[in-house]
């Protein structure tokens, strides 16, 4: 085991992103040490440093970020029996230095790790954890933490919502693509998504039955949704959660329905309709049981069966050194329809 390893980190508040050596961690009881082969980037990785997220900022520096982890178990802590050295796993990290992913080694709870299925690569599963957790929580956590849909974890619960419409705003986002697939697995129909129409064919291949042009005004999108179904749309998931998309979602949402958002509510909500803020953090108190069951017991089988496909990816060059450029591209909003992935072990 190395005494130190390389990590990409922010040295100080508003400071630059640099690669340095840090001490390699020791797994505690119930934990595993993971040698990270692939990690993907998410907007929160730069926002929490530059603009804050939900009013939360990085406070302790130097700070390692990144929360999508795929790699090999390097060492197991006391009490861990389900994993051994060399097992291939993926999981969602945490925004603490010993549990973040922009480094060559990290620590995770064994209860929150999933085995990488034989049909997927490190890169493919590295694109999953954050968007997987976010979409699963938004759809399947109990109200008021999610939409309260029954999770499709068994053959009996898959297809349970046949004939029930759902609207997913931002279908081409990384979260939106997962949400469409889960909606299909749950049986929803029609599955209406908004997106740039250049993504229509891909989103329909994932399970969307209708793709509406995201650039259309709210009034037009309301009318088009009514032409698609005369049933009340009581489930809406706004994966973008800008003021404009929240306005559209609330307008389409039927009385008595719930809309899940991933950012703070930004619109007035009429009586009889409800906005739910879905927080996809792994250790958020209301998520712990739901997400431990997802990762530890459920998701590997779903992936092995091909019921869910990971998002498209682009691999960044130069290991951890390439993350800074990827973060700048996300900040400039030039990434669409794919996830950026880095290989920490390829750092010079």
From TrEMBL:
Top-level taxon in the UniProt lineage: Eukaryota
InterPro entries: ADH-like_C, ADH-like_N, ER, GroES-like_sf, NAD(P)-bd_dom_sf, Trans-enoyl_RdTase-like
Name recorded for this polypeptide: Enoyl reductase (ER) domain-containing protein
GO molecular function, one term: oxidoreductase activity, acting on NAD(P)H
Coiled-coil segments on the chain, per record: none
Record domain Enoyl reductase (ER): where: 15-342
PANTHER family linked to this entry: HYPOTHETICAL OXIDOREDUCTASE (EUROFUNG), ZINC-TYPE ALCOHOL DEHYDROGENASE-LIKE PROTEIN C2E1P3.01
Source species: Psilocybe cubensis
